[in-house]
Amino acid sequence: METLFLSIPLYCTLSPLGIPSNQTTKATSINVFTITLHGLFSSVGIIENLLILGVVGFHVRRSVISVWILNLAASDLLATASLPFFTLYMARGNTWTLGTTFCRIHSSIFFLNMFVSGFLLAAISLDRCLVVLRPVWAQNYRNIQLVGKICGVIWALAVVFTIPFYIFRDTIALPDGKISVTTITLGISQTSGLGLHETLLAFLIPLLIIILSYAAVNQGLARRGCRRPFRFVRLVVAVVVTFILCWAPYHLFIIMEAVAPSRHPAQRFAGKALPYVATIGFLNSVLNPILYVFSCPDLRNKIRHSLGAVMESVLAEDLAELARRRSTARSLTLVLKSYLFGWVLPPPQAGQGLLQLCSSIRAQKDVEEGIQQGVEAGQTVTNAMDEKNGTL
């Protein structure tokens, strides 16, 4: 059995054969562009997914749908949080300098996210199918606890399927001692099998389940005469399409590299392309939160409200407290005016003379001036107390 001991890109199953192991660290324009994209995806993705987790986790009533979205966002957050280290790896000329153990953990996160995303989208598609085709069963048995257990099983399976990618990751120092690269030591047949295992479980099988589920959903809705799909169905379709567009190029090159003969130009081309199509795969974790927000107006409003609450808490020490006191004073003035004016200046009675009406208006102005003086005096006392206590 021919043994393979190869320098590989961090997130690829095989290697770019034909590239010397002592590759230079000179950055090309495409590498600079890719590194810039990684930094952008990482920053935006972390903020987006943290926001989704915070809003859906704490400001949205817990439901089956929210549990699905929370798990997708958690998986995407893991992926985007790992991106800065991948960016560092590429910026240093595909050189890993953070240790073997962290190399294995970090690389495994990429594959874990891939498995979890595929499994979750397949499960959500089956869930939609059951809701449409078996509404009575869904009403009786579909609940948060069941979905939570399913998500737990999905994460456990994803961890199990990620183990081979953890075991066969390693680092090696080159003879010149300047760089270290990720390596894998496997027979060629095992290496090809690992790549096909990844594509089959993380992409092809979930894709088949998704297609069959939504074909059944559309057929069921057509029988009922429902022309417009539910809002969540539209959201899931958008997420699934994004998943396919982002991950299909990666898996296409994985298959090309796995089935091409050893050291064939097609295998070399696939190996060179994989780091860049892996970047497109990361884009999926950035786009999902955007789809959640634009597909769900209620979620968009809650996020806007949450951001406003954050700004209020930041400014509360300097401005919000003073604004609250002034607002309270204005509200008190309006209440007193409404109450006293209604008492001092009742509606004109039939036959009321001009002199009596003018007297009532004069009394209204006197009361208004008295209220304003009282409010100003109260505000003066409040300001004096604030200055004494050091609040303002």
TrEMBL record:
Sections of the chain in a coiled coil: none
Gene3D superfamilies the UniProt entry points to: Rhodopsin 7-helix transmembrane proteins
Location of the protein in the cell: Cell membrane
Sequence ranges assigned to domain G-protein coupled receptors family 1 profile in this UniProt record: 48-292
Short name of one Pfam family: 7tm_1
MF term (GO), any: complement receptor activity
Keyword presence, Cell membrane: yes
GO cellular component: plasma membrane
Keywords: Cell membrane, G-protein coupled receptor, Glycoprotein, Membrane, Phosphoprotein, Receptor, Transducer, Transmembrane, Transmembrane helix
UniProt record, GO biological process: inflammatory response; phospholipase C-activating G protein-coupled receptor signaling pathway; positive regulation of cytosolic calcium ion concentration
Membership in a protein family: Belongs to the chemokine-like receptor (CMKLR) family. Belongs to the G-protein coupled receptor 1 family.
UniProt protein name: Prostaglandin D2 receptor 2
